[in-house]
Every structure is written in structure tokens, then in C-alpha cells.
């Protein structure tokens, strides 16, 4: 994608309820929050913040649409057809969607065009394919009874999304819920609220009944909390930090009780054994796993655990690759390093790095802000060496382009270092020895283990989700679809004599 002027991209700021854009009701609530562009720090729009009344309006509309429209009752293939048409419209609008995504987030426009938008559309198609695949079971009861479990949608599902991959993360929540016949109220992150509005508009164009897919704008404390506590919300599907996940779970327990899917934080290891056949390829894999989206990826490979024989050489090459990255606005085609979402987040990241250095860590690369002459928040890709397992930089999720280095001698030590006491989202193992790779994969407590690669492919069938404090339940795969269904047991006595 060519360079473009971010000021020329049309931005609509509103809620989307009952198939319509709803602006904030007063001058105050219409522009209750400033929304900034991470690339240059400029305020480019105001955001309405939905209070409990606005949330109630959205949820009641969704409930009405669930009860009165054909969405849940139609032949599932008809629902799937609308979802596929929606995906086609999203792809047809890719240039606008990619620009909109880029200006307000950390996603480079060229990546949004080649990956985020098509991946969003294809994810919708993937879940559409499940719409007529899971109906329930016949149970092996005694022969004069017929026992069934019937899969049914929940009703209205609340989806709460983070800012790091706004379109993709929202679609992972929304698409399986809709495909299963539910109505959805989505709250995007207040930092990246606009691109999903275009998705909602296109859903109506595709033929989705009004009120089935709604969006409320606002922060977590007011809008997100009101959504989780609403009595008509049957389930909350959330992606975000572990702290927020716990707050949501508590709100759902106090006001329901409601089912939850929680995709939370991570601190994922990349374990490199000295026998890797192509060290350069492995260094590039490790580098990409922590610099993609400036490390603001839940599965970022933020802990390098490397065997002593290759450790120095590995860190040296990693630093060299980091130095090749060019920070730049998301609308500049030759940028290869994304901004941090906000100055505040950048300062938090820098604080962890400074404290690590003060505690004895050594900077093998980076360790500070990249000056851009404006309010854009860019951070140097950073390597923290000389780190031990007890330090804050190894224990907490940094969510930035910062990798810690720990050195090991034997396999047992590698496994002990790889296992994080709290998080268990993902892990990478690099070795030529398949037996060792599988022992590590079995041993590491994480929801995903990649061997001789790092990161997802475009296969939607492989579920993703965390062990331990990294979450409950799965996104993607059959599991994500099934999590949007509940099961009713029906028992028929058909031989009863009067
Ligand atoms: P966050 O938890 O701060 O916010 C996520 C969403 O929750 C936002 O929409 C926010 O407004 C809302 N929210 C905040 N407080 C709330 C409350 N009390 N009630 C209801 N909603 C509330 O997370 P973030 O900073 O937007 O995203 C980064 C985090 O997301 C990282 O921890 C990252 O690891 C995690 N993440 C996880 C996955 C995964 O699949 N496991 C994927 C992407 C991001």
C-alpha cells in the first residue's frame, strides 16, 4: 500500500445499535474521550462513552433481535450465507478498512491490507462453515426413551476486545458467536474504537438482521463493567489483560452467574537448543516473535531461553537484526517497527527496562525511546541479558519489544526456565531433536507450543488459548464455535402406557 495522508481518512465516531449509528446524546458524552493516533500522538476524534442506560439500550435491542428476527431460528445455511456475504464485503472494502485500522492503531497499513483485513474476512467464513455442523447428540438411554442434547445459542453475548489487533481480535469473538445464532454487543477498546464500526455497517449490508450485531463505545470501568453486569447478557467473551479478566469474571459471578471465555496475558518463552540446523533462520524467527506489532501481541515470545554453546552468538545476531528495523508511522510503507499504543504505555515499558538494569540486567540492545520529533510513541527493540528468573522483567508481561535472555545447559534446566509460574499462553521450542522437542512440548504448561516455528499460521482450525492465568477457553477452532452454544437435554418417554 502506498503512503497516504491520515487526515484524509474518514472516521465515524458513534455507537452502533439496532442497525444504526448512534452519536453521543449530548456534547459532553459525544466527545467524552479523546482518541489519539499512536504514530504521531495527534487527537483525531472524540469518543462517546456509553453509560449504563446506553448499554441497556444496546442489550435490549440485541435481545429483541435475537427473539424476533430469524437469526437464531433460520436454516443455519441461510445464516452462513449472510456471514459469507459479509466476509466478501469486508474484503471488497479492504483499502478503506486497512487505512482506518492503521491510523488509529499500531498496525502498519500494508500489513492490515495483506493480513488483518483478509484474515478477519476468512475467519468469518471459517465460523460460518460451522453453522450447520453441530446440532447436539442422541443419548444412549433405555429403549423406550429418546434422550437428546440440543445445541442452542445463549442469547445475547457480550464481546470485549483489546487494542492490539482491533479487527482481528474483535472478529475472533464476534464471528463464532454470530455463527452459532447469538446476538452480540461488542465493546472495542477505547483506544482503537472505529474500524469495527465499519464491520457492523457492512454486516447490515450483507443482510444480517438489525440488532444482531451492536457496538457500544466507552471505557472499561463504565461501559465494559455495565455490559458484564447486565442481566440479559448470558455470556462474556473477553480478550485483554489478566487483571481485567479477573474483574470481568467477578462481575459475571456477581450478576448472573454468566459463562466466560477469557483470553488473557502471556509471558511466552522461546527455547533455543544449540543443535538448531539453521541458526540464522532461528534468530530471525525469534526476532520476529518479539518485534511484530512492537511486541504488542499476546503470544509475543518475550523470554529467550538459549543453550550456552550458542548464547553469545545468538544474542549478537539478534541485536544486529533489531538494528535493521525502521520505526515509522503506520501509513509509511517502509516502516518495519510499529509504534507503542500510547506514550503512557511506552513509559510503563521503559520503567520495567530501567528497573531491570538497576537490578543488574545488561542491555544488549535498545533500552529507550526512539525520537521521532512528535508525540508518536516508539520504543527501541530491546534485549535484556544477565537476567534471572526472579526479576520483574521475567515475571511480568511487558507487552512491548523487549526480550529477556536466560542461558541454560541441559534440557531439564531449559524446561524449568520455560515454565512460567503464572502465565501459560504459548511457547516455542527450536531443536533438531524431535524426541526432545516433544518432551518439551509435553512438559511446558502452555495452551500452544510451536516447534521450530513461532506464531500462528492462517489455519483457523488450531485453537488458541491459555493455561494458568493466561485464560479460560479457546479462540479459533471448533472449540471457539462450541463455546458459543449451550446444551439442552430433552428426554422423551414414548412407550408409556396409560
Ligand atoms: P485491557 O484488559 O486493559 O482491556 C481490554 C478491554 O477490556 C478493553 O476494551 C477495555 O476497555 C475493557 N475493560 C477494561 N476494564 C474493564 C472492566 N472492569 N470491565 C469490562 N471491561 C473492561 O487490555 P488491553 O491493554 O486492551 O490489551 C492488552 C492485553 O490483552 C495484554 O495483556 C495481552 O496479552 C492481552 N491479549 C490477550 C490475547 C489472547 O488471545 N490471550 C490476545 C490479545 C491481547
Sheet/helix structural class: alpha/beta
Q: Report strand order across the widest sheet.
A: 14-17-18-13-12-20-21
CATH homologous superfamily label of the largest domain: Aldehyde Dehydrogenase, Chain A, domain 1
Bound small-molecule species: nicotinamide-adenine-dinucleotide
Distance between the termini: 75 Å
What shape does the CA trace take? globular
Estimated share of beta-strand residues: 15-25%
Q: Name the CATH class of the largest domain.
A: Alpha Beta
- Find the count of extended strands (DSSP E, 2+ residues): 24
- Total number of helical segments? 16
| CATH architecture heading of the largest domain | 3-Layer(aba) Sandwich
The major beta sheet can be summarized as: 7 strands, mixed
List the helices and strands and how they pair.
Elements: E1 15-17, E2 20-22, H1 27-30, E3 33-36, E4 43-47, H2 52-68, H3 76-92, H4 94-104, H5 109-128, E5 136-139, E6 145-153, E7 156-160, H6 166-179, E8 183-187, H7 195-206, E9 213-215, H8 220-229, E10 233-239, H9 242-254, E11 259-263, E12 268-272, H10 279-291, E13 301-307, H11 308-324, H12 343-358, E14 362-365, E15 369-370, E16 378-379, E17 382-385, H13 392-395, E18 402-408, H14 411-418, E19 423-424, E20 426-430, H15 434-443, E21 448-451, E22 467-468, E23 471-472, H16 477-482, E24 485-493
Parallel strand pairs: 7-8, 7-10, 8-9, 10-11, 12-13, 12-20, 13-18, 17-18, 20-21
Antiparallel strand pairs: 1-2, 3-4, 5-6, 6-24, 11-23, 14-17, 15-16, 19-22
Helix pairs in contact: 2-8, 3-5, 3-7, 4-5, 5-6, 10-11
Amino acid at each position: 500500500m502506498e503512503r497516504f495522508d491520515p487526515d484524509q481518512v474518514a472516521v465515524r465516531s458513534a455507537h452502533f445499535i439496532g442497525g444504526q449509528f448512534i452519536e453521543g446524546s449530548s456534547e459532553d458524552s459525544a466527545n467524552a474521550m479523546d482518541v489519539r493516533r499512536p504514530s504521531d500522538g495527534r487527537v483525531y476524534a472524540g469518543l462517546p462513552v456509553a453509560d449504563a442506560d446506553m448499554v441497556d439500550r444496546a442489550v435490549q435491542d440485541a435481545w429483541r433481535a435475537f427473539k424476533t428476527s430469524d437469526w437464531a431460528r433460520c436454516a443455519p445455511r441461510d445464516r452462513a450465507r449472510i456471514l459469507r456475504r459479509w466476509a466478501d464485503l469486508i474484503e471488497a472494502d479492504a483499502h478503506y478498512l486497512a487505512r482506518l485500522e492503521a491510523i488509529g492503531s499500531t498496525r502498519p497499513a500494508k500489513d492490515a491490507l495483506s493480513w488483518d483485513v483478509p484474515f478477519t474476512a476468512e475467519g468469518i467464513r471459517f465460523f460460518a462453515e460451522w453453522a450447520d455442523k453441530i446440532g447436539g447428540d442422541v443419548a444412549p438411554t433405555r429403549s423406550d426413551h429418546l434422550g437428546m442434547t440440543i445445541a442452542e445459542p445463549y442469547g445475547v453475548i457480550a464481546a470485549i476486545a483489546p487494542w492490539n489487533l482491533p479487527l482481528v481480535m474483535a472478529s475472533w469473538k464476534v464471528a463464532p458467536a454470530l455463527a452459532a445464532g447469538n446476538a452480540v454487543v461488542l465493546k472495542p477498546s477505547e483506544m482503537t474504537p472505529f474500524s469495527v464500526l465499519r464491520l457492523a455497517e457492512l454486516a447490515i449490508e450483507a443482510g444480517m438482521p438489525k440488532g444482531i450485531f451492536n457496538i457500544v463505545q466507552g471505557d472499561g470501568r463504565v461501559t465494559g463493567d455495565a455490559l458484564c453486569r447486565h442481566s440479559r447478557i448470558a455470556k462474556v467473551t473477553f480478550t485483554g489483560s489478566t487483571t481485567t479478566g479477573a474483574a470481568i469474571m467477578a462481575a459475571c459471578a456477581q450478576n448472573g452467574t454468566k459463562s466466560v471465555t477469557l483470553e488473557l496475558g502471556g509471558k511466552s518463552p522461546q527455547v533455543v537448543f544449540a543443535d538448531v540446523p539453521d541458526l540464522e533462520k532461528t534468530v530471525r524467527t525469534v526476532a520476529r516473535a518479539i518485534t511484530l506489532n512492537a511486541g504488542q501481541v499476546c503470544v509475543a515470545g518475550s523470554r529467550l531461553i538459549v543453550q550456552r554453546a550458542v548464547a553469545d552468538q545468538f544474542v549478537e545476531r539478534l541485536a544486529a537484526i533489531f538494528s535493521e528495523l525502521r520505526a515509522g508511522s503506520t501509513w509509511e510503507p517502509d516502516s518495519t517497527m510499529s509504534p507503542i499504543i500510547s506514550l503512557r504505555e511506552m513509559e510503563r515499558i521503559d520503567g520495567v527496562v530501567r528497573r531491570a538494569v538497576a537490578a543488574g540486567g545488561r542491555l544488549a540492545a535498545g533500552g529507550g525511546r526512539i525520537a521521532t520529533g512528535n508525540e508518536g510513541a516508539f520504543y527501541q527493540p530491546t534485549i535484556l541479558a544477565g537476567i534471572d528468573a526472579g526479576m520483574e522483567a521475567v515475571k511480568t508481561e511487558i507487552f512491548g519489544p523487549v526480550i529477556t535472555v536466560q542461558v541454560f545447559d541441559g534440557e531439564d534446566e531449559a524446561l524449568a526456565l520455560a515454565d512460567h509460574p503464572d502465565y501459560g499462553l504459548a511457547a516455542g521450542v527450536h531443536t533438531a531433536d524431535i524426541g526432545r522437542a516433544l518432551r518439551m512440548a509435553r512438559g511446558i504448561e502452555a495452551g500452544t507450543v510451536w516447534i521450530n516455528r513461532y506464531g500462528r499460521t492462517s489455519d483457523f482450525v488450531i485453537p488458541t488459548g491459555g493455561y494458568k492465568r493466561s485464560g479460560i477457553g479457546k479462540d479459533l477452532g471448533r472449540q471457539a464455535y462450541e463455546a458459543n452454544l449451550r446444551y439442552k437435554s430433552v428426554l422423551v418417554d414414548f412407550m408409556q402406557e396409560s
